C-alpha cells in the first residue's frame, strides 16, 4: 500500500502545507542501489576525550568509500557532509560531554539529507561511576539527537574497544543500507556478552557471502523474500523455506535467485532434522523470519490462538536452533539472525501472544549468544522490525496504519529491504564481534526504548 502522504510531502505544495500545519515532514530515504552504493559527500571525523581507537579507526574509516575530513570542507558544497563519526570513546566525565557538544553543535546543520551521525562510545566501566555516567549519557544524547535531526538523517551509537572488529558495523551504519536504523545502541566486540575471536574479514566486501548457504524461513514473501534477495545479492546460495501451501511462491523466489525451495512447516517436531537432511553439506546462515499474528485481547483469546503464535514465532525457533547447532549442520563461523518485533519490546494492545513470542526471541538471543559462540563458533542476533510496509501492515485499518507510519523519527514506514540489509550485516562473515544484539529496524519508533 503506497504511502501517499510521503509522496505528497515530497512535492513543493505538499512541503509548504505540511510545514504550515505543523504536520510530520518525512524525507524520501536514500537506500542502497547498485548505481549508488554509497552516500555522497565527505565523512567528518571528530573526537571528544582521549581516544585509544587509532590507528585502526583511521584505516577503517578510510575504507568506507567516503572522503575523510577533520573539519567541514569549505565550501561544504551542494552535497554537504554525508556522515559524521564522533569518537567519544575516551569521554570519562561531564567535562568530556562538554566536548561532545562542542564537536557536534557547529556541524550538525551541515549534515546532508539522509546523512549519518555515528557516535562511538566505550563499554561502561563498572569500577568508575563517572565514566559510566558519561558513557551512559551518550545513549540519551544519541536518542535525543535522532528524534530532532530530521531530513532522513539517522543517529546511532556503537560501543567498541577495537575499531577493526567494528568494520562491518561502521560500513553498514555509514551507508545507505541502514536507512531505517536510527536511535540504536550497538555493542561490538569486547563489550558484547562474550569477547569473540578476531573477525574474519571477507575477501570481497561486495559479495561477502559467496560460497555460503543461507536458509530463510518464511522466505516466500514479504520481509523474508527481501532477506533472501539481499543475501543472494551478497553471494549466498539461498534456501527458501516456507509452508507447503506457499510452495509455488517459494519456488518462484528461489528460481529468481538461483537458490532452492524447501517446502516445510517450521512447526514440525522434526523440522531441524529435515532441514539438515535437505542440506547434507550444512549451512552457514540461519534466518528465523517466519512469523504469524493472531490478535485478540487476552480476555477474548482462546488457547488455540495463543498456542499457534507461540508455536510458530518462538517454540519452532528454539527447536530448530537447538537441532541445527547440536547436529553441527550449522557450521562454525555460522550466523543466526532471529526476528523479534518492537511489539515484543514495547508491548502492544491485542498482541499478548505475539508480544510474548517476540520478547521470547530477544531472551533466547541474549542467553544463547555467548554459549553458541563459545561452543559452536556461531553468533546469534535479532532484528526487531517496527512498522514495515508489507501485506501484513497493509491489512491494518487506515488510521492505525497512518499512526504506525508516522510515529517514528523518520515519520514513515520502513521497507522489507531495510530489515533485509540489517540482517545481511549481522550475517556478514566480518560481523563475528557482533553477538547477542537485538537491533531495531524501526526508524526510531516512539514505541518502547
Ligand atoms: N511487517 C511488519 O511490520 C513486521 C513488524 C515486526 C516484525 N515482523 C516480523 O517479521 C517477520 C516477517 O513478517 P512479514 O510482514 O514479512 O510477514 P508475512 O506474513 O508477509 O510473511 C511471513 C511468511 O512466513 C511464512 N510462515 C508462516 N508460518 C510458517 C510456518 N509454520 N512454517 C514456515 N513458514 C511459515 C508465511 O507463509 C509467509 O510466507 C515475521 O516474523 C513478523 O512477525 C513484521
CATH homologous superfamily of the largest domain - what is it?
NAD(P)-binding Rossmann-like Domain
CATH class membership of the largest domain: Alpha Beta
- Poorly predicted spans: 191-198
From the alpha carbons, calculate the radius of gyration and give it in angstroms.
22 Å
Helix/sheet category: alpha/beta
Percent of residues in beta strands:
15-25%
User: In percent, how helical is the residue content?
Assistant: 25-40%
Which strand order does the major sheet show? 9-8-7-10-11-12-13
Task: Let me know the average pLDDT.
Answer: 93
How would you describe the shape?
A: globular
Series of H and E elements: HHEHEEHEHEHEEHEHEHEHEHHEHHHE
Number of domains: 2
Number of strands: 13
Bound small molecules, deduplicated: nicotinamide-adenine-dinucleotide
Number of helices: 15
Q: Major sheet, described briefly?
A: 7 strands, parallel
C-alpha end-to-end distance: 28 Å
Output the CATH topology of the largest domain.
Rossmann fold
Could you walk me through the main structural features you see in this protein, from its secondary elements to its overall organization?
- With 449 residues, this protein is α/β, with parallel strands linked by helices.
- The chain folds into 2 domains: 31-191, Rossmann fold (3-Layer(aba) Sandwich), CATH 3.40.50.720; 213-441, Rossmann fold.
- The protein has 15 helices and 13 strands.
- The protein has helices spanning 4-9, 12-20, 56-62, 94-104, 129-149, 167-173, 222-233, 247-256, 271-278, 303-326, 342-346, 352-376, 391-394, 398-406, 416-427, and strands at 42-49, 67-69, 81-90, 111-121, 154-159, 185-187, 213-217, 237-242, 260-263, 283-288, 330-339, 379-385, 438-441.
- The strands form 2 sheets. Strands 9-8-7-10-11-12-13 form a 7-stranded parallel β-sheet, sandwiched between helices.
- Strand 1, helix 3 (56-62) and strand 2 form a beta-alpha-beta unit.
- Helix 7 (222-233) crosses helix 15 (416-427).
- The radius of gyration is 22 Å and the shape is globular.
Amino acid at each position: 500500500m503506497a504511502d501517499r502522504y510521503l509522496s505528497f510531502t515530497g512535492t513543493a505544495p505538499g512541503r509548504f502545507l505540511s510545514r504550515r500545519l505543523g504536520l510530520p515532514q518525512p524525507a524520501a530515504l536514500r537506500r542502497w542501489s547498485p548505481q549508488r552504493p554509497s552516500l555522497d559527500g565527505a565523512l567528518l571525523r571528530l573526537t571528544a576525550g582521549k581516544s585509544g581507537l587509532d590507528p585502526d579507526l583511521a584505516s577503517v574509516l578510510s575504507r568506507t568509500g567516503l572522503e575523510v575530513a577533520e573539519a567541514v570542507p569549505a565550501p561544504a558544497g551542494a552535497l554537504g557532509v554525508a556522515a559524521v563519526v564522533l569518537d567519544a570513546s575516551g569521554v570519562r566525565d561531564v567535562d568530556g560531554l562538554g566536548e561532545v557538544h562542542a564537536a557536534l553543535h557547529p556541524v550538525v546543520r551541515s549534515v546532508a539529507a539522509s546523512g549519518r551521525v555515528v557516535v562511538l562510545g566505550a563499554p561502561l566501566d563498572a569500577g568508575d561511576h563517572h565514566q559510566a555516567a558519561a558513557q551512559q549519557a551518550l545513549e540519551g544524547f544519541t536518542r535525543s539527537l535522532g528524534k530532532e535531526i530530521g531530513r532522513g538523517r539517522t543517529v546511532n551509537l556503537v560501543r567498541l574497544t577495537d575499531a577493526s572488529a567494528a568494520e562491518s558495523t561502521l560500513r553498514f551504519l555509514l551507508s545507505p543500507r541502514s536507512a531505517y536504523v536510527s536511535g540504536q545502541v550497538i555493542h561490538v566486540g569486547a563489550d558484547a556478552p562474550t569477547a569473540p575471536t578476531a573477525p574474519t574479514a571477507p575477501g570481497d566486501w561486495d559479495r561477502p557471502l559467496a560460497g555460503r548457504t543461507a536458509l530463510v524461513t518464511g522466505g516466500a514473501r514479504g520481509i523474508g523474500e527481501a532477506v533472501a534477495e539481499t543475501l543472494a545479492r551478497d553471494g549466498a546460495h539461498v534456501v527458501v523455506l516456507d509452508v507447503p501451501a506457499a510452495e509455488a511462491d517459494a519456488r518462484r523466489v528461489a528460481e529468481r535467485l538461483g537458490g532452492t525451495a524447501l517446502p516445510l512447516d517450521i512447526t514440525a517436531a522434526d523440522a531441524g532434522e529435515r532441514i539438515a537432511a535437505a542440506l547434507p553439506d550444512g549451512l552457514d546462515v540461519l534466518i528465523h523470519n517466519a512469523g504469524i499474528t493472531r490478535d485478540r485481547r487476552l480476555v477474548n483469546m482462546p488457547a488455540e490462538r495463543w498456542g499457534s503464535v507461540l508455536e510458530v514465532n518462538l517454540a519452532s525457533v528454539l527447536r530448530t536452533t537447538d537441532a541445527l547447532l547440536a547436529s553441527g549442520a550449522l557450521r562454525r563461523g555460522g550466523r543466526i539472525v532471529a526476528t523479534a518485533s518492537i511489539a515484543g519490546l514495547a508491548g502492544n494492545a491485542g498482541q499478548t501472544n505475539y508480544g510474548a513470542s517476540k520478547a521470547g526471541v530477544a531472551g533466547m538471543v541474549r542467553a544463547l549468544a555467548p554459549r553458541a559462540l563459545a561452543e559452536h563458533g556461531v553468533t546469534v542476533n535479532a532484528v526487531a522490525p517496527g512498522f514495515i510496509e508489507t501485506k501484513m501492515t497493509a491489512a491494518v485499518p487506515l488510521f492505525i496504519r497512518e499512526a504506525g507510519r508516522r510515529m517514528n523519527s523518520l515519520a514513515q514506514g520502513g521497507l522489507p529491504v531495510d530489515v533485509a540489509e540489517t540482517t545481511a550485516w549481522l550475517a556478514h562473515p566480518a560481523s563475528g564481534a557482533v553477538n547477542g544484539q537485538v537491533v531495531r529496524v524501526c526508524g526510531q519508533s516512539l514505541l518502547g526504548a
